[in-house]
Specification:
With about 525 residues, the protein is an alpha/beta fold. It contains 14 helices and 19 strands. It starts with a strand and ends with a strand.
Length: about 525
């Protein structure tokens, strides 16, 4: 496959055009797709639903009907913008009903015209705004089936966001998803269908993951049979893709037996990905690639728009990838064996507020991220991050903060001696003329100097290069220290940094490898 897979979510287009006061007609629908022509995008995933559908839908509540239902019931019609007069739903109503334009049909046709494969992406269990039971975004099915949610067995009811996700152990929940799949396959002449299990991956009640895995596999088999029927109607193959958590163990422990899916020929593409809170810059892509060796299944590496080195609950910072950090994630994943880069929430911003998603820089990014060759020689940053998905029995990968201090316990022979802490940082291939540095961030005001650090990379000592200033994204309130890495032939794709505190303890809250041209 190669290149970039691009996900366009269900209401981004109409929301951003409404916010930017753009009146949408056929010309604007075409222009939206045309901006992606001659980029690195090979496959375009059009998401058509969350809890509700965002097209006139027979199998579940859609935005039009839901707006009227919630308004009549006196529910919440205020989200990011006032909806009391219909808001961006009126943009959608104008497209479909006033102008008689079928938005997704138009986009599918236009994508084919410009040589990009059109997919439909279905979110299997989306629960946006779950903290507000009366929110506009909840379907009637979600509201009426509260007893079918995965976490309401708790004596206090829902205790976190994911407790309100629907439980696929219930046949009614599985049927609710299947009916939308069947409608989409009947309505749209698509290249492929994606089941986005990452919205939400927590789709089975706690402790029922093993039995639930069998039920989900049966559902996947049923969907594949429905796709086979659609192939007869449309006269061509329809591929099936899935979005899953970053590691194979997370998938299995949460009830998603992708081994079975592969053995039964149910899927053509697996995207492994973080959920949302940060790009995961150390997914086991190399392990996935070995597991899929000899299988007729492609592997895509999911890449989020946010980047955050440390897990906090609740989330405290919202840092967006720059073009340099986005390059870093893509370069590492491609070098570790990903067949494609999958961009999630990298959608355009006509307001220009997020410069990296507007104008020439946006197109430049979309031309580069799917190609190791295009990324070579470009400035990039490889930031240590974490995995934003957890599963029972699976250690949470959360490398930072990293406390560096003398040993205080353990084998008496080593107590009080320097302890070296390690970080794994995948970077991919590096051009021979690149300047490379390791940058570590600690709290401001520590007054640390060269004498405080002992740092190695791949068992070779690094020379201290002084304090550094980082461009966005970065954590404010930290002081950054740089260390020179010698660029030499045969460097590995991933590096191991060892760091020790030589005089007094310090805590590393940011770490990255920076690659610049000389």
């Amino acid at each position: 496959m190669g290149g970039i897979i691009f996900n366009e979510d269900c209401n981004h287009f109409i929301y951003t055009r409404f916010r930017s006061h753009i009146k949408v007609g056929l010309k604007e629908l075409h222009e939206f797709i045309d901006q992606y022509k001659d980029t690195g995008i090979t496959d375009f995933f059009l998401n058509v639903n969350a809890s509700i559908a965002w097209f006139p839908c027979k199998s579940r509540d859609d935005a039009f009907r839901n707006f009227e239902r919630i308004k009549k019931a006196g529910g919440n019609l205020d989200g990011e913008i006032p909806l009391s007069n219909g808001g961006y739903v009126e943009v959608l109503r104008s497209i479909y009903y006033d102008q008689g334009l079928d938005m997704y049909q138009i986009w599918i046709a236009r994508l084919r015209e410009i040589g990009i494969n059109p997919w439909i992406s279905i979110r299997t269990n989306d629960i946006h705004n779950t903290d507000d039971e009366n929110h506009f975004l909840h379907s009637g099915f979600f509201c009426k089936n509260k007893e079918k949610r995965r976490g309401l067995h708790h004596s206090m009811g829902a205790c976190d966001y994911y407790d309100n996700a629907l439980d696929f152990c219930y046949s009614e929940v599985r049927e609710h998803l299947f009916s939308l799949v069947a409608e989409v396959l009947e309505k749209f002449d698509l290249y492929g269908l994606e089941l986005d299990w990452m919205r939400e991956i927590y789709s089975l009640r706690i402790g029922c993951e093993e039995q639930g895995a069998k039920l989900i596999t049966e559902l996947m088999e049923r969907i594949r049979r429905e796709a086979d029927k659609a192939e007869q109607k449309w006269g061509h193959q329809i591929q099936i893709a899935v979005r899953l958590p970053a590691s194979p163990l997370l998938c299995l422990r949460l009830g998603f037996d992708f081994f079975d899916w592969i053995d039964k020929g149910l899927v053509h593409l697996i995207t492994v990905t973080p959920r949302w809170a940060t790009s995961d810059n150390d997914m086991p892509i190399d392990l996935w690639k070995k597991m899929l060796s000899g299988k007729q299944v492609k592997l895509a590496a999911g890449q989020e728009t946010l980047i955050d080195p440390m897990f906090t609950e609740p989330k405290k910072v919202f840092l967006y990838n720059s073009i340099e950090t986005a390059r870093g994630t893509a370069a590492a994943n491609l070098a570790m064996g990903a067949d494609a880069v999958y961009l999630f929430n990298y959608m355009d911003d006509p307001s220009g507020e997020l410069a990296q998603y507007h104008g020439e820089q946006y197109r430049q990014m979309l031309k580069e991220l799917g190609s190791e060759e295009a990324l070579m020689g470009k400035p990039r940053r490889h930031v240590v991050t974490y995995c934003d998905i957890k599963a029972p029995g699976v250690p949470h990968k959360n490398p930072l903060p990293l406390e560096c201090a003398k040993r205080g316990s353990g084998n008496p022979a080593f107590v009080g001696k320097t302890e070296y802490k390690t970080l794994r940082i995948p970077v991919g291939k590096v051009s021979s003329n690149a300047k490379i540095q390791l940058v570590l961030g600690v709290d401001e005001g520590r007054g640390l100097t060269e004498a405080d650090f002992d740092v190695f990379l791949d068992s070779e000592k690094l020379n201290y290069a002084g304090k550094a200033t980082l461009p966005k994204p970065y954590y404010p309130g930290l002081e950054y220290h740089a260390f020179e890495i010698i660029n030499k032939p045969g460097m590995p794709v991933s590096h191991i940094a060892e760091i020790a505190a030589m005089r007094e303890p310090f805590t590393i809250k940011w770490a990255e490898i920076v690659i610049d041209n000389i």
